[in-house]
Amino acid sequence: MEPATDRSRNHEPIVGALLRIRGRVQGVGFRPHALRLARALGLCGDICNHGDGVLLRAWGSEASLRELQRRLRYAPPPPASVESCLVEALPGPPAMEGFHIVSSQPGTGLCHLLPDLALCDACRAELQDPDNRRYRHPFISCTACGPRFSIAGALPYDRERTSMASFAMCGRCAGEYRDPADRRFHAQPIGCHECGPSLRLLPGETAGEHSLQGAIECLRNGGILAVKGIGGFHLMVDATRPEAIARLRRRKHRPFRPFALMVRDPEVARRYCRLRPEEAAALSSHVAPIVLLEQSGERLPDEVAPGMDRLGLMLPATALHLLLLEAFDRPLVCTSGNRSGAPLCAGNDEAVESLDGIADRFLLHDREIVHRCDDPVLQLAAGRMRTLRRGRGQVPEALPLPPGLENADGILAVGGDLKGGFCLLRQGCALLSQPFGELMHPDCRRRWREEMSAWLGLYGSRPRRIALDVHPDYGSHRHGRELARQLGVPAATVLHHHAHLAAVLAEHGHPLDAGPVLGLVLDGLGMGEAGALWGGELLLGDYQGYRRVAHLAPVPLPGGDRAAREPWR
Ligand SMILES: [Zn+2]
Ligand SMILES: [Zn+2]
Looking at residues 152-157, what average pLDDT do you find? Predict the structure, then answer.
């Protein structure tokens, strides 16, 4: 950098610099960290969230400025990470005294809104400390943990634009929020027993700790409990009671598909499953996903996962779940709170209505879930943890695209109808949505549409082009076309299997100009050339095009798309 100099103060060369920092820097305590660093280095200036990330202005000696830049860039506080730091010279003298955090500036750039972060160790210790004022507070959080995406109404990410806006901080919480030395400095979702969200148990209208105890009692008696979590509702039941699980299966009309489990800690997990180091690390990560683990040791009733040799297990991602699980030395079934095929419930009234007849009791809270998001599913395969289903804790993490695609921008891809989702390409990154289930289901399609327009609003983004699956009968295709017409932008159709090939290339960082690869695409069904529906094809291609090299022999399938799921038709 070539900072401007000003020798008027003590004949010391005072230089000024503007740092534009991008990466995972909002909602992770990055600004307070920078403030402490800047003050320790004797710099003056300010820092704010900006649509692009953060903007930092600082004045001081050139050595101090370089040191600040170095430490922010290469030693950010976890879970923050810095992707780029652009430096511009600022004219002196400094515009202020001291170093401050100032209010956010709206911006239209790529902003890394964070996924929800699982309970951190420091908050867990406070939760379990009877002398702490947040002892057993189900919504304890800090700059390193707690809800982010699920409560974000708009960007930049600040409390007044989240569903925590309706909770006015008490004096002590406000003090922590303002104190740069505190680990809750500018942590947007913080609260306490006095000022934060609160619990309610229905039916019976008990509140607070009583509602927790009532919920635990319900589970101990083999009851089915609906719990409002971070991205939506769960249905929970004791996983060691076959009759209780069978009742849940009957009521949910879900006879066979395996249920996920939650355990209070890795020790309980080890009693039922083999836990390799990678799997243990994933379970305890800030994503806190469901991990598919090999069964070994004590057996659970067959009703949990009929005919499967693996169990889907997760640890509590929130203090609320931990408080429930601490009462059990055994797994609880913890499955999505929805009716079969319908979207995950997120609102209190919606859940009470929709899960009526399934759940015996409802453990609710009054913090609104803005973006619903199901639990992610991971599995260890070929030495690496692989995501089988993206979800809470991962969405809306920006995924950098491979070399050559750094300038990919302004494209909205609306995907297919089975396991619907969408993807926004912004400034060389893919922002991939959570899955929405089968878009043939009208409620799932409505959620998908609503979430898509929420994202376009959130990122201040008007797509310049919309990519559609070529299948004209897909609801996603029709909606994408309609959206393109409304926005007056072109729509481009993509062949289903070519999209799969390109997605795998991107996942593996295949550069844009690295030439074609052979791709064997085997999935349920996709519309290919000449309007034919193909189940399996061998393609030679890259991002821009492909040639079909071989395919499974075509057979006439009366029944069209439905035959993909029912080939006997
Ligand atoms: Zn924490
Ligand atoms: Zn408080």
Answer: 82
How close is the Cα of 47 to the center of ligand 2, in Å? 26
List, in order of start, the domains of the chain with CATH numbers: 4-101 (3.30.70.100), 113-378 (3.90.870.30), 397-494 (3.30.420.360), 514-565 (no CATH)
SS3 70: helix
CA of 102 to the centre of ligand 1 (A): 23
d(CA 393, CA 8): 50
Specify which residues 227 forms β-bridges with.
234, 363
Which ligand sits closest to the CA of 193?
2
| Ligand 2 centroid to residue 176 C-alpha, Å | 9
Closest among 301, 323, 320, 324 to 311, alpha carbons compared: 301
β partners of residue 361:
225
pLDDT at 551 over 90: no
| Block residue for tokens 């019976």 | 204
Minimal CA–CA distance to 474: which of 430, 422, 552, 548?
Answer: 422
pLDDT reported for residue 560: 52
What's the 4 CA to ligand 1 centre distance in angstroms?
A: 40
- 152 C-alpha vs ligand 2 centroid, how far in Å? 20
> In this prediction, does ipTM exceed 0.95?
yes
Ligand 1 centroid – CA 332 distance (Å) = 24
Residue 386 has pLDDT above 80, yes or no: yes
CA distance 252 to 407: 46
Query: In angstroms, what is the span from residue 190 Cα to ligand 1's centroid?
Result: 10
First-to-last C-alpha distance (Å) of the chain: 69
Ligand (nearest to CA of 147): 1
Q: Which ligand is nearest to the CA of 120?
A: 1
